[in-house]
Specification:
A hairpin with a 5-residue loop joins strand 10 and strand 11. It is built from 19 helices and 14 strands. It is globular, with a radius of gyration of 23 Å. It has 3 domains: 342 residues, Roll (2,3-Dihydroxybiphenyl 1,2-Dioxygenase, domain 1); 38 residues, no CATH class; 62 residues, no CATH class. It has a 5-stranded mixed β-sheet. A 3-stranded mixed β-sheet has the order 7-10-11. It is an enzyme of class 1 (oxidoreductase). This is 2-oxoadipate dioxygenase/decarboxylase.
C-alpha cells in the first residue's frame, strides 16, 4: 500500500520531471539552486540547516495552477486531499497588484509537522473571478462562464481514485500508479489548438484571465525550488544568460534573520502553441504564460510581526515615490535595520515570530529548579528555541511575480465596485475549511511549550 505522504512525494517528483521536459530552463533553475545550496552548506555548516535540513530544502517544491470556477477548485481540493494537502490561507491578488490580476487564491499543503518534514510539497492555486465587474462586463462574463462550464479539467477516474486515497489514507500499488499517471497528465500543457480570437479577447483584460479561461485545460504555471541564498542564485542565473525579473519579491536582504518568504523568477518564455482562426485553420503561434520561480523561506511571523512587515512595505512605497527613481532595495534594507529586531531571540521576546521550544537535554545539573518564565528558561539554558519555517505565501509577492511576467497591465475599471471574496466564502465554495496559517503556527508553538512543561516538569504552564 502507498500512503498519502508517499503519493505526495511521488507526485511532486513526477511533476518536476514533466515540467523540466516542457520548460528546460526550469531544469537549469533546479541545477543552479542545488549548486547554491551545496555552496551555502559548505560555507555555513549546520547554521545553513536552521530552517530545514538540506535534504528537505533540496527536495522542496511548490507548484502553481489556475482554475476558472468554484467547481473546478472543489475538484482540485479532492485531488490534493488525496495527497494529505489542505487549503491554507486566502490570498486576494486582485487587490495586491497594480496590473489586472483577477484571481483569488489559496494554497494546498500538509499541515502537521511530521508531514511537512516528510515532504512539504505545496500548490498555490488561483481561481478566476468572472463576476468582478472591474474586469469583466456582463457580456464577457456570460461568455466566459459558458466557456468554463463546458470544459472538463479532471477525468472522473482521477477524482474517484482521489476520493479513495483521501478516505483510506492510502492506495494499492496499482491504484497509486494509475492516480499518479492521471494526475500528472491533468497538469501537462495541452497540444489542443486554442481559439485565437477568444484568447485575445480575454488577453485584453488580463493575460492571467486568458491563461485560465482562454483554454480548455489547466497546466502547471510554474514549479518552484527552494534555495538558501536567493541573491546568489539571481546572480548566477543572470550570468548564464537567463533573463530574470527586475527584483526579488518580499523582505530585503539584510544582516538580521531570514523572515517570511523571498521569491523571484526567470521571465515567462515564448512557448509554441497551436492557434485556431475563425475560418478553422490552425496557425503556429507562441504564448508567454509560464515562468520559473525560485524561493527562499524564512521564519514565520506572528500577526504582530506580519503587521510590522506590512507597515514597513507601505513605508517603502511612500519613500520610493519621491523621488520616483529611489532605490527601493536600499530603502527597505535601511528600514528593516532600523525597525526590525536583529536577532531571533529579540523577535521571540517581542512576540513577532513563532518558535518551537525544546528542553536542552545536556544542560549541566546544578541543583537548581527550572523557572516558569520562558525568558528565564532560555537565559538559564533549560530550553532552546528553534524558528518555525514560514510555509505559506505573501499576496503582494505572488502578485508581483505574476505582474513581472505580464506583457502589459491589462484593463481594469476602478469606477466599478468589486465583488467581495474572503476565506469564509472560499471554504463554502470548496466544501472544506480554509485554514488560518497563523492558527497553525500558534498551535505548533503552544504544543511545544506544553511539552516543555511536561518534560521539566514545571509547577504550571510556561509563561
Amino acid at each position: 500500500m502507498i500512503s498519502q505522504w508517499q503519493l505526495r512525494a511521488a507526485f511532486a517528483a513526477r511533476l518536476s520531471d514533466m515540467y523540466g521536459r516542457e520548460v528546460p530552463a526550469y531544469t537549469t533553475l533546479v541545477d543552479v539552486s542545488r549548486e547554491v545550496n551545496e555552496d551555502v552548506l559548505r560555507a555555513r555548516g549546520a547554521d545553513a540547516e536552521r530552517l530545514g535540513s538540506i535534504g528537505r530544502v533540496t527536495a522542496e517544491r511548490h507548484g502553481a495552477i489556475r482554475v476558472g470556477t468554484p467547481g473546478e477548485l472543489r475538484q482540485v481540493a479532492r485531488i490534493f486531499g488525496a495527497l494529505g494537502m489542505h487549503p491554507v490561507g486566502f490570498y486576494d491578488l486582485r487587490e495586491a497588484a497594480a496590473s489586472a490580476v483577477p484571481v483569488v487564491s489559496t494554497a494546498f499543503r500538509p499541515v502537521e509537522e511530521e508531514e511537512l518534514a516528510r515532504n512539504p510539497f505545496r500548490v498555490f492555486t488561483s481561481m478566476l473571478t468572472p463576476a468582478d465587474p472591474r474586469f469583466f462586463d456582463a457580456d464577457l462574463r456570460s461568455r466566459l462562464e459558458t466557456f468554463l462550464a463546458g470544459r472538463e479539467l479532471f477525468p472522473p477516474e482521477l477524482l474517484a481514485l482521489a476520493d479513495r486515497a483521501a478516505g483510506d489514507a492510502e492506495l494499492t500499488d496499482a491504484d497509486a500508479e494509475r492516480f499518479l499517471q492521471l494526475a500528472v497528465r491533468a497538469f501537462e500543457l495541452s497540444a489542443e489548438p486554442i481559439d485565437k480570437v477568444w484568447y485575445e479577447t480575454l488577453e485584453k483584460v488580463s493575460a492571467v484571465a486568458a491563461d485560465i479561461g482562454g483554454v480548455r485545460s489547466t497546466h502547471i504555471n510554474h514549479l518552484t525550488p527552494r534555495v538558501l541564498d536567493i541573491d546568489e542564485l539571481y546572480r548566477r542565473m543572470t550570468e548564464r544568460g537567463i533573463e530574470m525579473i527586475d527584483a526579488i519579491q518580499g523582505p530585503p536582504a539584510w544582516d538580521g534573520p531570514d523572515l517570511l518568504l523571498r521569491q523571484t523568477s526567470f521571465r515567462a518564455l515564448a512557448e509554441p502553441r497551436a492557434l485556431r482562426t475563425p475560418d478553422g485553420s490552425v496557425l503556429s503561434g507562441a504564448l508567454r504564460v509560464r515562468f520559473g520561480e525560485v524561493e527562499a523561506r524564512g521564519i514565520a511571523l506572528t500577526r504582530d510581526g506580519r503587521n510590522l512587515y506590512d507597515r514597513l512595505l507601505a513605508r517603502v512605497d511612500e519613500q520610493a515615490a519621491c523621488p520616483p527613481d529611489a532605490d527601493r532595495t536600499a530603502l527597505a534594507r535601511a528600514l528593516w535595520t532600523e525597525r526590525v529586531p536583529g536577532s531571533e531571540r529579540e523577535l521571540g521576546a517581542q512576540g513577532l515570530a513563532y518558535f518551537r521550544y525544546q528542553v536542552v537535554p545536556d544542560r549541566p545539573a546544578d541543583g537548581s529548579r527550572p523557572p516558569t518564565r520562558l525568558d528565564e528558561l532560555l537565559d538559564q539554558g533549560w530550553v532552546r528555541a528553534e524558528p518555525l519555517v514560514y510555509e505559506d505565501f505573501l499576496p503582494r509577492s505572488a502578485a508581483g511575480i505574476f505582474q513581472s511576467n505580464l506583457t502589459d497591465d491589462g484593463s481594469r475599471n476602478n469606477d466599478a465596485t468589486g465583488i467581495a471574496y474572503d476565506s469564509e466564502w472560499l471554504s463554502g465554495a470548496i466544501d472544506r475549511e480554509v485554514l488560518d496559517p497563523f492558527d497553525l503556527y500558534e498551535e505548533q508553538q503552544n504544543r511545544s511549550l506544553v511539552q516543555v512543561a511536561r518534560e521539566l516538569p514545571l509547577n504550571g504552564p510556561v509563561d
